[in-house]
Amino acid sequence: xxxxxxxxxxxxxxxxxxxxxxxxxxxxxxxxxxxxxxxxxxxxxxxxxxxxxxxxxxxxxxxxxxxxxxxxxxxxxxxxxxxxxxxxxxxxxxxxxxxxxxxxxxxxxxxxxxxxxxxxxxxxxxxxxxxxxxxxxxxxxxxxxxxxxxxxxxxxxxxxxxxxxxxxxxxxxx
Amino acid sequence: xxxxxxxxxxxxxxxxxxxxxxxxxxxxxxxxxxxxxxxxxxxxxxxxxxxxxxxxxxxxxxxxxxxxxxxxxxxxxxxxxxxxxxxxxxxxxxxxxxxxxxxxxxxxxxxxxxxxx
Lengths: 174, 117
Hints:
A: mainly alpha; 7 helices; B: mainly alpha
């Protein structure tokens, strides 16, 4: 894939990649931006080359996850403190108009994030990839670097736990 | 699709809308990489520390060498009592006045030989 095409594909994926970077960085927007920037740098410089063995989105998300893990290890070594999970941002959310709607959306998001915070990291990741990004379980497994069976287990347990945390009606899926 | 999954999906969708509002510009991230990033504050400290240590080491070495150098020079400048006696005797044996003229009184004999013990 040539650089120009790669850049265009990354631009199309940018919003979703940022959402995934946020999930990987415990909802810290500054760190997510740094991780995303480093990921783009690796991709555009060819240090992380797309071989076509998986979907482009899956590949990019895998790179973002790896960079986030490295960043977290580096921060841990330096003794940096992470900000807790929190909802909302400074910008105007897309597609949500009116203060009442915004407040409700933020409240719901905060509730969801609080529920997610009580799950294991793997469960959070797989739920984000499936529900937020719309990936299949196999694609989510590829991004997370685990087997599909393992991803399915994390998904089922995480979903049940999240529904319980959010007081939603639970129903066993086939 | 199950109702419970729809609820979750809806909540994630709302979160996604919120996140989009705070995403940085793609061009901004790409451009940021091409320009040199300013040095982090701790980088200066990292470089300064060895310089300070090297300076301190030089200072200590200089302080340690100074008395040792002075002692060495003093040892060379002042002959011992035995050396002075031997030089005086040699000059007397030769009987050379010139030799005696070039010697100072300090070289020939200490004022109080007992004090040199």
